[in-house]
Every structure is written in C-alpha cells, then in structure tokens.
Design goal:
Strand order of the largest sheet: 1-7-6-5-4-3-2
Order of helices and strands: EHHEEEEEEHH
Number of helices: 4
Strand content: over 45%
CATH architecture: 2-Layer Sandwich
CATH superfamily: START domain
CATH class: Alpha Beta
Helix content: 25-40%
CATH topology: Alpha-D-Glucose-1,6-Bisphosphate, Chain A, domain 4
Largest sheet: 7 strands, antiparallel
C-alpha cells in the first residue's frame, strides 16, 4: 500500500513528459528542496542509472544516491534511495490520453530500526510535504 500518491494530466505528448521526468537533473525545477542533481553513471538513462541528489533540509544539505531500479521507455520507471534506515521508492506510470499524458505517481517509504519505525508517520508527512506536489510543478514547467 502506498504511503502517498497522486496523478495528473499534462497537456504534452507522452514521450516529451517521460523524457523530462526521467532526466533527474530537472528535479531542481520541480522539487522544492532539491538543490543539485548529478548523474553518476555513464550511458543512456535506464534501469541501473544512478544520480546523486542534494537536498536542503532545514538549512542543511543532505545527499542521497537514487537508482532507477525498473525502467520501461515511455511507460514507467521506479526510483529508489536508501539512507540511514530510510528507503524511499517512487513509482511512475505514463499513459497517453486524448488531452496529453496521464502520469500516476506512488510513494512507498520503508523504515528499519526502532527509532525510524517509531517516527515513520512524521517522516512520511515531511516527504509528502516536500515531494507530494511535484507532478503539479512538472505540469507547470512543461505547459508554460
């Protein structure tokens, strides 16, 4: 079961939306706390592609390695990261619709360790607040 999810219709062709979203270097435009993203693997974007993401969290910079663990061109991809007992997995699905592209997003958050398990509800709320509206920001960036 997802910890949170959203979906949106973007009035752009599916391939354009997919290519914009899988290029994580665009995250600085659509995820409020992301200040830098660097691709750290060679070659085209696909399963196994890794990025180093830097976020500003309460005035401090935090880095996380994000990997595409599943990737189907113009259909879906999964991005996962794990830091200090917190595993975050984002699933994306793309569907061509009459109005453009329907994007579905689902976030799953897994914690390990007693402290992380006890604070999971707070962690989910923080991540939802930071990333929960990013599809709206993608829509605004692509439709402007």
């Amino acid at each position: 079961m997802a910890d949170f999810r959203s979906s949106i219709i973007i009035k752009k062709p599916l391939q354009e939306v997919f290519q914009y979203m899988v290029d994580m270097e665009n995250a600085t435009e659509v995820m409020v706390n992301v200040v830098e993203v660097e691709k750290i693997t060679e070659g085209p974007i696909g399963a196994g592609t890794k990025y180093l993401e830097t976020r500003s969290i309460r005035g401090k910079k935090a880095k996380a390695e994000i990997e595409y663990t599943q990737f189907e061109e113009n259909q879906s991809y999964t991005a996962s990261s794990e830091v200090n007992g917190l595993e975050v997995t984002y699933y994306y699905q793309f569907h061509e619709v009459e109005e453009g592209t329907h994007v579905e997003f689902e976030a799953n958050i897994h914690t390990t360790g007693l402290f992380m398990k006890l604070t999971k509800p707070f962690i989910v709320n923080i991540i939802r607040k930071e990333d929960g509206n990013h599809l709206q920001y993608v829509k605004e960036a692509l439709e402007k």
